């Protein structure tokens, strides 16, 4: 790259720290400024991030070297800073989910398209080497015809987690609970493997926590290619188990657990011996247990998209797919019927 891409972060909570760590390791980018919701938070953020801090988005966006804005605010507060940043001609990378409903998400995608800036959504697990190994096996046809795919995210969050921020577990801030906040990463991988969804029947409940949104959910899916699938999501399963992605085909099966290949069985070939070590990159019981390595890889992809004027791997159009399915599950639960997407 001829010059370093100047990056600014809006939102200075825990996930922003992961982004800052990733940006620090990038050769082609530099974190220049952060923007927080109040003067007090901005002042505190300045000491944490060691860069210029703002509490007003307009003064923040006037920084002369900002090219890329990363949005790390609460999920339901992505729209306004995204539209403001896009209007200022900045490329935008948004923490998952892109927004809390399709109507709001579509506004962001349309604005970026009209302005001609790059838009991406953080789904860093797509850059996990073990997942890429699985995805390549599907692409090469090693599994044959895809028959079934399951996503299980049976995690645990204690009461302190929901009390730590006023927006957690609320419809306005989170958009929902275990599905849209915790399980969405694995749901994104499931859709990336199996493709578009034909129909879904789902049920959500609040079984354990005193929160507005669901802490437990289950869904049955029919994909457009004829494959079937299931999803379970929870923040009420003590002590929390590593997330699991199962892909079954006519010629073989591959299972990912905690981001690591757990089983690799291809018809007519010897099974691959899998190292049983437990992944330390699962948020099963601790949301901050994840590292920043895959965020780093997604940033590299996004910088290449800016430099070469191509679509990033996880564009806005890609990032909205899991939100559409989750919205379908919520609607199905509400009306008690199957929903066609």
Largest sheet: 8 strands, mixed
Instruction: Assign the CATH class of the largest domain.
Output: Alpha Beta
Q: What kind of assembly state do the chains in view correspond to? A: single chain
Query: What's the β-strand tally?
Result: 14
Spans of at least 5 consecutive residues whose pLDDT stays below 50 are none
Percentage beta strand:
15-25%
Counting DSSP H or I runs of 4 or more residues, the number of helices is: 11
Helix coverage percent of residues?
A: 25-40%
**Terminus-to-terminus distance:** 41 Å
In CATH, the homologous superfamily of the largest domain goes by the name Dihydrodipicolinate Reductase, domain 2
- Rg, please? 20 Å
**What is the residue-mean pLDDT, rounded to a whole number?**
95
- Which structural class fits the helix and strand makeup? alpha/beta
Q: Which topology of the largest domain does CATH recognise?
A: Dihydrodipicolinate Reductase, domain 2
The general outline is globular
Written as H for each helix and E for each strand, in order along the chain, the element string is EHEHEHEHEHEHEHHHEEEEEEHHE
What's the structural domain tally? 2
State the CATH architecture of the largest domain. Answer: 2-Layer Sandwich
Short description:
This protein is an alpha/beta fold and 341 residues long.
Describe this structure in words.
By secondary structure, this protein is of the alpha/beta class. It has two domains: 118 residues, NAD(P)-binding Rossmann-like Domain (Rossmann fold, 3-Layer(aba) Sandwich); 186 residues, Dihydrodipicolinate Reductase, domain 2 (2-Layer Sandwich). The protein is built from eleven helices and 14 strands. An eight-stranded mixed β-sheet has the order 13-12-11-7-10-9-8-14. The chain has a six-stranded parallel β-sheet with strand order 3-2-1-4-5-6, sandwiched between helices. Strand 1, helix 1 and strand 2 form a beta-alpha-beta unit. Helix 4 runs parallel beside helix 5. The longest helix is centred in the C-terminal third of the chain and has 20 residues. The chain is globular. It starts with a strand and ends with a strand. The model has no long low-confidence stretch (mean pLDDT 95).
